Amino acid sequence: MKLKSRHLLGLDGMSKEEIALILDTAVSFREILDRPIKKVPPLQGKTVVNLFFESSTRTRISFELAERRLSADVVSFSTAASSVSKGETLKDTARNIEAMKIDMVVIRHPAAGSAHFLSRVVDANVINAGDGGHEHPTQGLLDMYTIWQKFGSLDGLRVCMVGDITHSRVARSNIYGLTTMGAEVSVCGPNTLIPREIEKLGVKVFHRLEDVIPRVDVLNVLRIQLERQKSGLFPSLREYHRFFGVTKEKVAKAPKPITIMHPGPINRDVELSADLADSEHSVILQQVTNGVAIRMAVLYLLGTSN
Predict the structure, then answer these.
(1) Quick one: how far is CA 67 from the chain centroid?
(2) Which of 12, 18, 57, 82 has the fewest CB within 10 Å, making it most exposed?
């Protein structure tokens, strides 16, 4: 089986079989990461360019590692040191890069839809590494892989995303992917951080963390994205932490252990307490490692299907 599209632009509309294919492929690459020699040759001779128009640490490094582990030639693009700072458009940047015979493009951009636009103007495979508040598909996939790795299945699991749902591209990719795979998905946060009519995506909405904790298997705690917010969405960070901060004390009231996730970077003691982030309930570091395996799987499936 192959992926239906030449690109990975989002998880919205991706079939259960395609998601399962990526997760299954990631298993093999996760094993490679534990070997003394971590490099394999599937993308030898391929050139991948990373176009990051937004700051990133985990995602950028994770993609670069995945590309190098697959033996690709890697070019990393910095907006500050490029012609974008001189007014060059995304279309011109992309076409100039493609003229250099690039095979694959990984793009992160502040504008929603940028990855879709890029896929229409270049012949290279395009992977969306986050486009505005729209989607972040590889983060959604690595989150699903981490849950699947721990529980053995996604079907029927109860997963709640807590926090800034409105501004989170991670939340959207998780919702699309998890519901497709049969999980029961809910969101929790203040009214001002929950999108209107999000129930139409097949999720349940809660506004009290105390109502969520007794009924879920996994809490995926999302970062408060102050850089994307307008002021006045909640009174203060202290007030937010009081009502929606996930802490050891609150989780201890659950009838069974809850798995704690976070896409990073963490605002410690705001959306998630430091002691819980570092506890035995947390799989945050596993998410980071699994991110490399998932990105290797996506690059492999797209890069070897032509």
Answers:
(1) 17
(2) 57
Compute how many other C-beta atoms are within 10 angstroms of the C-beta atom of residue 281: 19
66 and 299 Cβ atoms separated by less than 8 Å = yes
| Segment 234-263, tens digit of pLDDT | 657 888 889 999 999 999 999 999 999 999
Query: Tokens at residue 207, please?
Result: 């506004």
Q: Are residues 125 and 249 in the same domain?
A: no
CA dihedral 15, 20, 23, 28 (to 10 degrees): -130
Measured between alpha carbons, how far apart are the two ends of the chain, in Å?
13
Q: 221 with 150, same domain?
A: yes
> How many residues are listed for the chain in this entry?
306
CB-count burial class (<10 Å; 0-12, 13-18, 19+) for 202: middle
* Residue 99 belongs to domain spanning: 16-136+288-303
Instruction: Mark whether 131 and 253 lie in a shared domain.
Output: no
Residue 11 lies in a domain: no
The per-residue pLDDT for range 73-124, each reduced to its tens digit, is 999 886 654 555 556 788 888 788 788 889 999 999 999 999 999 999 899 9
Query: What are the tokens at 103?
Result: 């095979």
